Amino acid sequence: MNGDALIQAASAIGAGLAMIAGIGAGIGQGFAAGKGAEAVGKQPEAQGVIVRTMLLGAAVAETTGIYGLVIALILLFANPFV
Amino acid sequence: MNGDALIQAASAIGAGLAMIAGIGAGIGQGFAAGKGAEAVGKQPEAQGVIVRTMLLGAAVAETTGIYGLVIALILLFANPFV
Amino acid sequence: MNGDALIQAASAIGAGLAMIAGIGAGIGQGFAAGKGAEAVGKQPEAQGVIVRTMLLGAAVAETTGIYGLVIALILLFANPFV
């Protein structure tokens, strides 16, 4: 076994670990979805602005999940160590 | 043991780790389902817009779970290291 | 020890790790069940629409748990590495 194999093996584990960040976005965006559904039920005439606000907030919550994805993709396809 | 076996073994662990991201979507979408059910109970006449908002938000919350699935599938079937 | 044994051992760990995703669906769907029960208690006449909304949302929350199950089954029965 050479060193490159060890680095690639560790990178595969690292890529999997990076995806765990997605837990946060999933919880947060689901909370936003629930409150959004509650709000449109109370004020259906304000649906447009409620949904836009929900999606804007969810897009911000998505960022850390995308950071994890980017690091995983770098580890797999643009690994600086191998 | 050769290096490829080590990389494949680590990729199998990495694929499992990547799926842990699904925790977030499960919690978040369940919260959305609960708030959606509560909202339609209070305003049954607004059911359509409540359910649409709930499903739209849940779709956004699904994304990070799908990122994890994509990384797991890459590690298993399109692994750049083996 | 040969490489296949290491890959199979790691795949067993990976399959177990993938199932951790089920935490999310369990929490989320339990929350949905609780809010659904609360809602039918307050508006028994709306039971049909409440339960349908709850089950629709819970089905969405199930998806990431199923992704984890699929990856675990692939690691065990359709492992691309062994």
TrEMBL record, chains A, B, C:
Domain (V-ATPase proteolipid subunit C-like): residue spans on this chain: 13-75
Similarity comment text for this entry: Belongs to the ATPase C chain family.
Topology in membrane: Multi-pass membrane protein
Claim: Transit peptide is one of the keywords in the record: no
Subcellular location(s) per record: Cell membrane; Membrane
Primary location: membrane
Residues annotated as site: Reversibly protonated during proton transport: E62
Matching CDD domains: ATP-synt_Fo_c_NaATPase
GO cellular component terms, A-Z: plasma membrane; proton-transporting ATP synthase complex; proton-transporting two-sector ATPase complex, proton-transporting domain
Pfam families recorded: ATP-synt_C
Protein name: ATP synthase subunit c
The keyword Ribosomal protein appears for this protein: no
Organism: Halanaerobacter jeridensis
Function field: Key component of the F(0) channel; it plays a direct role in translocation across the membrane. A homomeric c-ring of between 10-14 subunits forms the central stalk rotor element with the F(1) delta and epsilon subunits.
Gene Ontology terms for molecular function: lipid binding; proton-transporting ATP synthase activity, rotational mechanism
InterPro entries xref list: ATP_synth_csu_bac/chlpt, ATP_synth_F0_csu, ATPase_proteolipid_c-like_dom, F/V-ATP_Csub_sf
Keywords: ATP synthesis, Cell membrane, CF(0), Hydrogen ion transport, Ion transport, Lipid-binding, Membrane, Transmembrane, Transmembrane helix, Transport
Parts of the chain that traverse the membrane: 6-28, 49-78
